[in-house]
Every structure is written in C-alpha cells, then in structure tokens.
Amino acid sequence: MFSIGIGTRARTRCDGIARRHLLRLGAAGMAGVPGLPRILRAAADEGRAGPAPRARNVIFIFLEGGPPHQDMWDPKPEAPAEVRGPFAPIRTSVPGTIFTEHCARSARIAHKFTVVRSHTHADNGHATGYHYVMTGRRAPFADGEYPVPTNEHFPSLGSIVSRELGAAGPLPPYVNLPHPMSAGGPGFYGPEHAPFVIESDPSQPDFEVKDLGRLPGLSEARLARRREILERLEADRGAAPPGGRSAALATYYRRAYDLITSPEARRAFRLQDEPEATREAYGLTQIGQCALLGRRLVEAGCRFVGIDAPGWDVHFNCFPSLETDLIPPADRAFAALVDDLDARGLLAETLVVMMGEMGRTPRVNAQAGRDHWSMAQCILFAGAGIRAGQVIGATDAHAAAPTRDPVSIADFRHTLLWLLGIDSRAEHDDPLGRPTPLSDGGVLIPGLLA
After folding, report:
1. Dihedral through CA 365, CA 366, CA 367, CA 368, nearest 10?
2. How many whole angstroms separate alpha carbon 9 and alpha carbon 260?
3. Contact by Cβ (8 Å): 127, 150
4. Distance CA 353, CA 334 (A)
5. What are the residues whose beta carbons fall under 8 Å from the beta carbon of 232, sequence distance 6 or more?
6. CB atoms within 10 A of CB 342
7. To which H or E segment does residue 128 belong?
8. Of the candidates 408, 169, 152, which has an alpha carbon nearest to the alpha carbon of residue 268?
9. Whole-angstrom Cα distance, residue 315 to residue 154?
10. Cβ-based neighbours of 118, under 8 Å, separated by 6 or more
11. Phi, psi values for residue 89, rounded to 5°
12. Which of 70, 187, 245, 376 is the most exposed place for a label (fewest CB within 10 A)?
C-alpha cells in the first residue's frame, strides 16, 4: 500500500502542512498516484478524534405536522386571546418556567429535561421541513411533492448513526416505528444503513413484528443448514463489491438471520411482556406504546429509534383535538419515557429528543386553527449528560421569533451527533466522489451540556 507521512500532529488547514510534506505530495501526484484530494483530506483529518460520547443511543420522537409551541411549552399568558389560545398556563417543577395545562405530566418532571424555545429555520413545508431536519439539507423538491425516497441523496440522522456507530448487538442499529419516517432513509449510504421498519401499531392487542417469527416446522438445524448453503453460494460467487446490490443483500440476510435466531432480539420486540401498569403509564396510545417499545429497543442495544407521530397539522378547529387527541398522549409518553429510563439507570446514556418540523402561527386563523410557522418552535432534550431543568432561548411576546440564543437545524444536528461521540465535520464520498460532511456546519447549542 502506498502511504505518505504527513507528521504526527493533526492538520486542519492546508497551510498547516510543512513545505517538505507538500513537496512529497506533489512528487506523488506527478508520479501518477490517484486520489490526491482524498490524500490531502486524510492528512487534514489525521489525529482528529470525535468527542467523547455522552450517549450510546437516541430515542427521537417526531411530532409530524408541527406541534403548536405556544399551546404547549412556550405559552404567552399576557398576549391577546387570538395569540395565547384557550389553554391556561401552569407551573412546572422548575421555578419560573410555565407550560400549558395539557402538558401537566411533563411539567411535573421539568427538572429532568431541557426545553429549547428558540429553534428556528426558514422552511415552512411539511415534506421539505421534515427533509431539512432529518438530513440537514434543503429539499431538492417542492413542498407537496413526496418522492420516494424523499432523501434520495443525503442520509438521515439515523442512517448516519448506523454508519458511524454500527450495531451494538443482534438488533439493527436503526429502527423506525410504527412506519417509515419521511426522509428517514439512508441516501447515498446505501440500503445497508436503511432503518428496520416495524410497520405495525404497538398499541393494538394483536401487535407483532412482521416476519420476525420463524416459519412453522423450521427447526434450528434446518435454519442453520439454509444459512450454510447461502454462505457457500456467496463464497463460490466471490466477494461482492462494497456498496453494491449483492453486498446489501448479504447484509440483509445476515441481519435477518440474527433477528430470527437471537432470543434477545425477539424478546426486545415482545411488548406484551411489559407489566400492565407500565404500559398504562406510557398510555395505551400509538405514541405511548411506541415510546415504551423504544425503551425496550435501546435497552437491547439499538442505537437510534425514530418514532413518527403524525397528526399535528392543525389548520382547522384545532383546540378540541389538541386538548384530547394530541397533546396529552404526547405529554404522557414523553414524561413516562424519561421517568422510566431514569428509574432503570438508562437516562444517562440515552438521549431523548421530541420535536416537529415546525411550530405554528402566533395568531389563531379564521378557521380556529394555526398554520405553518417555522420561524419559532421548541425542542425537548433529556438524558445523555445534558444540563436538565432549564429553558434555552426565548421568543417574543407572541411566540413569533427568537429573541435570544437562536438555534438552527445545523446546530441541532451538530449537537446530537456530538453527544453520540460523532464528529459532524467528518466526510464521506458520495457516488460521484464528492466529499460530503455529516452535517452542514453548526455549533453546540449554548448552555445545553452539563
């Protein structure tokens, strides 16, 4: 293997390479060594280590459609009625911090998590905003269009975690439930970093993970012989090129075998084993049981659990549905998850995030609803060594725009990856050989880390 020594110190700029090293690189280029830009980039990255991880895994609850921040975690009780809405403010366990009355469970444990009230961006579309959050890049399609996959090029957060951290046991490193997350795909990373999608509602009495069970009459011995035959066929055909379809299929076969044959994996998905009191604490709703299953999955080694909770696009007569169908189940699920992880000693190594792609308009519209509003929204963070019991950032008197510490999508993504020990500046080449960083800039959210 051809190698070029650049020295022992990390070099992060081209002008940091000594003249003698540059001459050696130039001579290598003239000698016809391919990939000089890649060599230079490797030199720049030499010695650069990612941050020390604070989290082993993530449970990412996505309130699809845009939760109304002023009706939940950023109330404005002094604003006019058409701004503040009908919900009353309540105190939380953190002195001086208020939520609305339908966030009562999270209010009781506000000392265990942090609210960022100043998340802001400029994409007011659902599909495009979801793409922006999950990939960190603006969507190459118009809102209202739903190409499949929506993130054809750039990988999602879960796929980045899958590639950078890999599996921590028999479970897939990246799981979506109860259905695929929009823009949650692997992009150019390839199908080996796609999520394992459950596509079944865990709140239903007959819940089971499709295709996880073994076919009747298929014994351990027969299953082992099938795998042996498959491995022989693969060996006879020769090694599959990395990133190709054959390699991806081989990965799928291996993961499927691990899932089917692993008692730990099958047990993780067996939600019926949970005590009834625990299930009721999370709420016998789709989001509640998804959160409980998310806890079981990270407990068994899953790295990134993405929970898609739709229904938050509240344009018309929104307050009855917010009061009964949307806010209380989400509030209950989040509070139960944080409490449960804490009681089990898992909160210190699990990052819990709850957010949507946008907030909602400051003023209630003529149809008694709230419209799209990406300029201000909230993110809830818990676990993984963050500094809990605080509010970061603030919005104006109408919850319309940040007045302090604005947080961008790039900041959010950089912070999440940093907590997992992943350097967001790291790059991978796309199919055209272009170096693509994991995140497009961003800084740590100020004040979030303990």
Report:
1. 60
2. 47
3. yes
4. 9
5. none
6. 16
7. helix 126-135
8. 169
9. 30
10. 376, 392, 393, 394, 395, 402, 403, 404, 405, 406, 407
11. -80, 150
12. 245
Q: Which of 307, 388, 294 is nearest to 340 (CA)?
A: 294
Residue 376: CB atoms within 10 A of its CB come to 29
**CA separation for the pair 400, 29 (Å, rounded):** 55
What is the Cα–Cα distance from 203 to 288, expressed in whole angstroms?
Answer: 8
What is the Cα–Cα distance from 449 to 393, expressed in whole angstroms? 14
Residue type, 129: G
Q: What is the pLDDT of residues 91-136, one digit of tens each?
A: 999 999 999 999 999 999 999 999 999 999 999 999 999 999 999 9
Non-local (6+) Cβ contacts of 436 within 8 A are: 154, 188, 427, 428, 429, 430
Q: 311, 316, 398: which is closest to 363 by C-alpha?
A: 398
Tokens in use for 273? 């084993």
- Kind and range of the H or E run holding 409: helix 409-419
Percentages helix, strand, coil for the chain (3-state, rounded to 5) are 40, 15, 45
* CATH class, 57-206+269-437 region: alpha beta
Instruction: Report residue 89 as tokens.
Output: 């403010």
pLDDT in tens, 374-425: 999 999 999 998 999 999 999 999 999 999 999 999 999 999 999 999 999 9
The two structure tokens encoding residue 436: 């693509």
The burial class, CB within 10 Å (0-12 / 13-18 / 19+), for 97 is middle
C-alpha separations of 79 from 84, 85, 244, 322, 396 in Å: 6, 9, 57, 20, 10
Tokens of 239: 């090694």
Total-model pTM: 0.84
